[in-house]
Amino acid sequence: MLIIHKYGGTSLADSTRIKEVAKRIKKESQKGDDLVIVVSAPSGMTNQLLEQASEICTTPSLREVDMMLTTGEQLSASLLSLALQDIGVDAISFNSFQINMKTTNTYGSAKLREIKSDRIFTEIAKKKVVVITGFQGINEHNDFTTLGRGGSDTTAVAIGVCLNADMVEIFTDVDGFHTADPRLVKNAIQVPYLSHSEALEMASLGAKIMHDRSVALAMKYGINLHVRNSYNDNKGTIIGEAKMEEIKLNGVAHSNKNALINIMGQNISSATIGKIFTRIKDLNINISNISKTQDADNYQQISMLLESDENIERFIKYKDEIIQNKDNEINAIEINQDVAKVSVVGFAVRTSGVFAQIWQELTSNNIDILMVSTSDLSISSVVKLADMEKAVQILHKKFFETANSI
Questions:
Q1: Contact 359, 345 (CB under 8 A)
Q2: 359-378: pLDDT as tens digits
Q3: Which residues lie closer than 8 Å to 333 by C-beta, 6 or more apart?
């Protein structure tokens, strides 16, 4: 079998942890499987590098930032290869340039386009463990690029696709997906199995175990994933094909980096609204929820939920542009960053009464619901940030800790 391992920054935080990871890899290699390892930078290094760059330059070049950031993964790859060699495992490390991992040209948030597998297969044929830098690639100019948040997960899945791997194992510091964040809910239950679509919904709504982009890639190409804890041998969470007609809830996810945007005005034309959203698209601002209300006097309010610091920062810069344009009929723009999104996830949300129970549980506990959105797999409620932890605990108790849970 050909197995891909991905180790995150907490698993490679220092020399002791790197040596422990090397021991795990040696144990797995002794089973006879071929192994390719994808690594992140040591925990905290990416933020440290970014802070140092900001101290030196107020507006650092994105190209130079990417050149700088790729050093973190190269450090992890080299040190892990050395640790493996030290305990008798024949290992070799590669960065993205050495295996020609091609991406788009966008520094800081590039997309993978192609991975040349010849050199990887050559080393596998020699029975070597191949260690590859995650989070990075090279563009058409042979400049280093980075893939954005969660990029190492995406690298691991992409290499799994390229090599037609039997399994991609994502090693982190928790035992896979849970019915809620164990740091908020002490009775959170580890989830043994999720379909790709369920895991994608959990990840996109705030479960920080894997980045949604990597899960989407695995779903597209039918790659099975196994999310495990690098600190123990627990089973973790398998992610694969949906089980036929299984109707259940998977968990309560939350995200706390949000902003609720209200754009208000009298007689706002469709053309003006169209211009606003076109500009939002051009600025690469992603909107997760949107609603529009209008009263009898034609006073309108367009409400949007933005997620991630990057999206919020981009919109804040764009706000003045909207206000200064006198042709767009906008009277005011409110930006409320003291909000959170709490979501109940699973196929069972489509069953009768789930939304009514969510509404009853939250409102009866004096938690205001500011916005609601639904999909085939989730019901999300936007609440005040101060109410987030309480909302997660209430909904988890209702749907996962009571006798009549779905």
A1: no
A2: 999 999 999 999 999 988 99
A3: 261, 262, 263, 264, 319, 322, 323
